[in-house]
Amino acid sequence: MYGKGILKGLSVTWKRFWDTYIEDISWLLRGKKRYNTAEGIAHRSSSKTRGIFTIQYPEERLLLPEEARYIPFLVYDELPDGTKEQRCTSCGICAKVCPPQCIWIVRSNDPNTGRPIPEPTEFYIDADICMNCGLCAEYCPFDAIIMDHDFEIASYSRNVYNMEKLLKPASYYKSIRPENYARNEAERKAKEAAKAAKAAGAAASQATPAS
Amino acid sequence: MMTTPVSPTGTVQSQTVDLAARFPGIVSADARPSYKGWIVPKENLIEFATVIRDELGYDLLSTLTGVDYFPENKMEVVYHAYKTTGGPGLEFKVQVAREDPVEVPSLIGIWPGVDFQEREAWDLLGIRFTGHPDLRRILMWEGYEGHPLRKDWKEPFYEEDFKPFKSRWPDGQFHMSEEKNAYKDNLTYPENFDPEKWIPEGDALLYGSLARYSLKNEEGLNTDHIVINMGPQHPSTHGVFRAALTLDGETIVGLKPVIGYLHRNHEKIGERNTYLQNMPFTDRLDYFNSMANNFGYALAVEKLMNIQVAERAEYIRVIMAELTRVQNHLVFIGNLLNDLGAMYTPALYAFEERELILDIFEAVSGARMMCNYFRFGGVVRDIPDDVMQKIKDLVLERLPAKTDEMDRFLTENEVLVSRLQGVHVIDGETAVKYSVTGPVLRAAGVPYDIRRADPYSIYDRFEFDVAMRTHGDLYDNYLIRLDEIWQSLRILQQAIKQIPQGPINSQKPQYQVRVPAGEAYGRIESPKGELGFYVISNGKPNPWRYHVRAPSFVNITPLEQICLGTKIADFVALFGVLDVVMGELDR
Questions:
Q1: Which residues of A touch B415 (CB under 8 A)?
Q2: Do A95 and B164 touch (CB under 8 A)?
Q3: Any alpha helices (H) in A62-177, and if so which ranges?
Q4: pTM for this one?
Q5: How far is Cα A16 from Cα B11, in angstroms, rounded to an integer?
Q6: Closest-CA residue in chain A for B512?
Q7: Which of A65, A166, B33, B297 is deepest in the core (most CB within 10 A)?
Q8: Per-residue pLDDT tens over the stretch B142-167
Q9: Could you give the ipTM of this predicted complex?
């Protein structure tokens, strides 16, 4: 019969149309909200979803996975006495690995000793050039530069981020990437413990011949 | 669906032909360390090419590119030929002195598919192919000064030959590149050139190349052919693509594609980058399939480095490459319907599944489209357990159901069938001649799939069929995409079952890899065709030559042959089934 294929196709559209209402009603009967709730958004972006699929941005937002990456930021640790300790040692690996070369670091020397200060004097990221590849964060040996989750950075002017704009506390890092943060902390603790053990061992071996 | 029989590595003919014995005193093997292939004098090139095509059966010339050996003052043209029956390829080279005019005979009479690739080599490297009928620039515009891929050419805002740039650290005082005035810094014009008085002359050449079709007087009646420029801002071309069409009434009698609107000289950027830095740039080629681009590039560099890929990473790579193929083909079907006028319902259905696949990419790599997920020797990070579960849900339940739904939705639709069936795209013989690869070639009855013909990575471990259709019309081109989705799902199902535990990278993470000198050509079956990366290393941190054999670019070579004699209304669909992406076409 001519037109059978069209009817078959239309039945697909028809089913999709009704699926939305069936889903809505079943959520309603279970007393749950399908829209504007984290549960509803998670369900609508899972492989179980049926019917309407759209996330109504900006009222609703997709849940970002932990690894989502956008323009990087610099991490500082808050010490118990309230001072900020930058993790960056201005080793320059991020500037060297950056594919579009958008990271500019000024490293300076201590005027008294003449040795380099292990902290950047200035740090710029040209966010207009940054391609969000994440290589800087991947190869940073100190977990000092981390990819952000904040993607709403449209502005009327050029975005050249300086230190003031880039520095964010470690607690923020923990809030957006809990698993990575936990893994890094464990690694750091293990490294410190190994260092301490080594120092203790060295002290012990030094102490032994003296005694 | 027609399939080719599964042959356990039986298709690979590994006999090496001693071409030096066949051409004594003329052809010699490339003796440079880590180089392969044969060196042919340019006087004998055509004879040599005829022999390897007709006697040895290398019917598909996949790649042609030039290399500028600036320090040695010579230029080289590199060819890679393959057999559509499978097996390893044959590489041959022509070396000429680097003194203008650099001339090499054109192979267009033997493999017409070299047409655009020769024009590209002329455009970017300044190698003249004698005997080429239409040797105009292709990516840059006519009137452009210089050949950008030559090693002594410097771009505006040129900073240094190689990254990382020294200005960035340790005393990087930030400055914006426009502070360096383009008219004062390293921007060169031809002699006696005044930019104020410049009139573009490229169009005259373009229309000149179309002139052979125009103005016929039949039976005393004045018939006029019309030239129509379709694009560059035409919604059907999925980007900035322009086709200059000559029409006789509604029938296309001549066509020249005009490309390069999105050209950024990816290859020059790649030669400035270090090997690792180039990985995110490959994402931007075919931006629908960044995973596939990463794959091809990683393969080429791994060949050069001569390293093994971690076992688990191999499976992760295959999973990602096949997922990207599924979403590419779904979007292709949706967009094809868009082109035909079925605005948006099929496209949005396809985009739903694509969204779910992109969610997986985002969870593993951090970005939906610009994945930058592959590293030399493995991948960036492991697939978390919850994401693996998502992949299983998709591959085992949702995607088969949705592909089936797409099939029910469209395949038998009478309007669609009557619009697609019998509109001839290309036949197998012409497609091979014009170096067309990918689904378009397979829909024309040539079961050539690199995953089977010359297996890379671990594709030889999976059981799958090479999808093939025989008519080569629009309808077969649509159906083959569905077939390939099914085959990809088959591979995925095996891969997620077999994936072992273990490390995800065989190498230590390092931001500057050491790549020994040599050359390598890595190619994969990307969703659009053969995607090849030709990389030459001279042992430095940056590649000496980096060439992308983009399937989109080569597949539009026969666009004129495809469209001649058809109605202009079909052009949109005929162009659509070639499935080109401008990021890759223009590079």
A1: 6
A2: yes
A3: 93-97, 135-139, 163-166, 170-176
A4: 0.88
A5: 45
A6: A97
A7: B297
A8: 777 788 898 888 877 778 888 888 88
A9: 0.88
